[in-house]
Recover the amino acids of this structure.
């Protein structure tokens, strides 16, 4: 018997040594309370690039020593019930895959609910008897319908983050409910090429948060290159579009200033024409006064002249104010 056990250990040790040489990454994971069915599913999913070995800690340490793995961090986590994972996936990818691939299992007293545990209304399939009192004991509304017990209303029996007590665990088990997620937990991964050990707290990253940070960093780098006028594959097109848009804006401002100047020049011409017309009218009226030298006519001509002068002053002030506003705007720019 002893000889058989020794031979089995040697075979397992040699297998581990061989795998250490074939795979770039070596991970240690816990097997505490992990159902064999979940381990079997993981092995099938990882069959193309990963190998999972279960062995005694003494055998694993001997194999690591003979394979010349000089990682004190890795050796320090080889204890109790463990699995050794040999993989071609990088440490972060492997950790994420193992973390996501969990199985469902029944609840035990002391387990913490990861989300609200709801028992829904419907036929339980349980016969009347002790089960009836058990269901009522956790606050469920029940009634006997034919040969079985039915739950008449949905009920949250455990809220997220709360501890599951023995009575509720018993009820969930009788209803064949498996509200607890369980999976293999990687303690750490060794990158052999760098002799770098990555503990679980380093590998356990929020992928969505990390992705958002990468997106933000990309956007900030792109904005910097565009504003600095640094041309690359990503910024060149944006810089050209930005330059075209700014050129059009400048052209529009120039055209508006040109139109405004033309309007001012036109006003000056009109003002000059008005002055000439008024002067002509005054001259004509003076001629009339000379021919009809009456005091009433003199007064009328004087009033016309004064009115013409006043209108000319107003127009001159308006033109001057327009030019001053334009000059002020140009200085402001």
């Amino acid at each position: 018997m002893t000889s058989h056990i020794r031979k089995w250990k040697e075979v397992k040790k040699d297998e581990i040594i061989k795998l250490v040489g074939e795979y770039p990454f070596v991970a240690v994971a816990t097997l505490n309370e992990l159902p064999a069915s979940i381990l079997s599913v993981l092995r099938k999913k990882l069959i193309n690039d990963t190998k999972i070995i279960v062995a005694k800690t003494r055998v694993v340490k001997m194999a690591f020593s003979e394979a010349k793995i000089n990682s004190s961090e890795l050796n320090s986590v080889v204890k109790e019930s463990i699995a050794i994972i040999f993989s071609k996936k990088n440490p972060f990818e492997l950790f994420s895959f193992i973390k996501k691939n969990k199985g469902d299992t029944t609840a035990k007293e002391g387990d913490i609910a990861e989300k609200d545990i709801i028992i829904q209304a419907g036929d339980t399939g349980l016969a009347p008897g002790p089960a009836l009192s058990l269901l009522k004991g956790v606050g469920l509304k029940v009634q006997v319908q034919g040969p079985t017990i039915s739950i008449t209303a949905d009920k949250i029996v455990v809220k997220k983050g709360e501890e599951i007590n023995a009575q509720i665990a018993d009820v969930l088990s009788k209803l064949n409910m498996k509200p607890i997620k369980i999976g293999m937990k990687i303690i750490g991964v060794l990158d052999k090429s760098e002799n770098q050990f990555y503990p679980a707290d380093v590998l356990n990253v929020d992928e969505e948060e990390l992705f958002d940070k990468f997106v933000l960093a990309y956007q900030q780098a792109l904005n910097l290159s565009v504003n600095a006028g640094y041309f690359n594959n990503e910024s060149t097109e944006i810089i050209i579009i930005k330059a075209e848009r700014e050129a059009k804006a400048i052209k529009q401002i120039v055209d508006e200033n040109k139109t405004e100047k033309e309007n001012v020049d036109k006003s000056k011409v009109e003002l000059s024409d008005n002055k000439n017309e008024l002067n002509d009218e005054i001259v004509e009226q003076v001629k009339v006064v000379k021919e009809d030298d009456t005091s009433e006519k003199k007064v009328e001509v004087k009033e016309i002249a004064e009115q013409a002068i006043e209108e000319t002053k107003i127009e001159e002030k308006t033109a001057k104010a327009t030019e001053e506003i334009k000059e002020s705007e140009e200085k402001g720019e």
Summary: The first helix runs from residue 2 to 22. The chain has eleven helices and twelve strands. The chain has a mean pLDDT of 81.
